[in-house]
Amino acid sequence: MAQDKPRGKKRPAQGQEPPAKKFAKGGGSDKPRSAPAKPAQPMSRKEQKEVSVAKKTKFRRNFATIQEAVQLWEKLRPKSTSQADKEQLVEQIVGMFRGKVLELANQHTASRVIQFCLKEGAPDARAAIAKEVRAHAFELARSKYGHYLVTKLINVAPKEDVPGEPCRGGVAAGTSLSARR
C-alpha cells in the first residue's frame, strides 16, 4: 500500500521556524532611509513649465525646431489667413525642416505640421518635401506617424508623380486573383 503524500508547500514541523526568505524587503540595505529633500519653496506653475521645456530642449532632438514650427502652424491654420501669407509661412516651415523631414515625420506634432504644409503649400514646397520623402517612402509608410505623411503626399501629388498603376477595387490592374495568393 503506497502512502499518499500531500502535494504543495511543506509546512514546518511543530516548534520549528519557517525557512528563511531569499530576499529581504527594502532592497537588502541595512542603512536607514533618509527622507527626500524638499525644495525650500514650491515652484509656481510658470517656473515648472520653464524647467520642463528646458529639459525637453536638452534631451529631445529637434524639440526647439518643432516648437517654432508649431507656432508658425498656428498662424497658418485659421481660414482667415490669406493665401499669400499661407504660402510664405509654409516656405518658412519647409525651410526649417529641410534635411530633417524623415526624422521629423516620425514625431506626432511634426508629422501633422508637414501634412498641413503639403495641403496648403505651393507646388514647389510640395515638391521639396516629396523629394526628401520619395527615397524612404516605404520605411515611412510602416512607421507610426510617417504613414499619415505618405498618404497625404499621395493624395496631393500630381498623378504623373505617383508611381505605379491605378488600382481597381483593391486589385492592381493586370493581376488575377490567383496571382495574389
Automatic annotation (TrEMBL):
GO terms for molecular function: mRNA binding. SMART domains: Pumilio. The keyword Repeat applies. GO terms for cellular component: nucleolus. It holds the Pfam family PUF. Residues 1-55 are annotated as: Disordered. Residues 68-181 form the PUM-HD domain. SUPFAM superfamilies: ARM repeat. Residues 44-53 have a biased composition (Basic and acidic residues). PROSITE patterns: PUM_HD. Keywords: Repeat. GO terms for biological process: regulation of translation. Signal peptide: none annotated. It comes from the Eukaryota. This is PUM-HD domain-containing protein. It comes from Monoraphidium neglectum. The lineage of its organism: Eukaryota, Viridiplantae, Chlorophyta, core chlorophytes, Chlorophyceae.
